[in-house]
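for the writeup, i need someone to sanity check this before i put it in the appendix. the sequnce is what the collaborator sent (i think, or maybe the updated version? ugh). structure was predicted straight from it, no edits. if anything looks off just tell me and ill rerun, i have time this weekend
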Amino acid sequence: MSQFAVTDRAAARIAEIVAAEGRDAALRVAVLAGGCSGFQYRFELDATPQDDDLVIERAGARVLVDSASLDLLAGAELDFTDALMGSHFAVRNPNAKSACGCGTSFSVD
């Protein structure tokens, strides 16, 4: 299965956020146990890649994904949605069998 991908829109937004922060950082995408469906996505700025991270560089932005999260994100894609109801990062994950209305929680069963 292919690795995690980042769209141009997501990369552009990450680059904007990092520039506004004024520091050298990447967006860390992680999957944690919890949420209303069993797993949830977490997004945070991180300046220090870990040894087991997948580092994706695209259009001036960097994304970090730890190896444990990558197992649940293999073949998924990070996108950025700018809609009338709000702007947010979204993960299109083929491994998710169901998701909840919040868009950040999913299950794989």
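The domain at 5-107 is CATH 2.60.300.12 (Hypothetical Protein Aq_1857; Chain: A;). DSSP finds two helices and nine strands in the chain.
thx in advance!!
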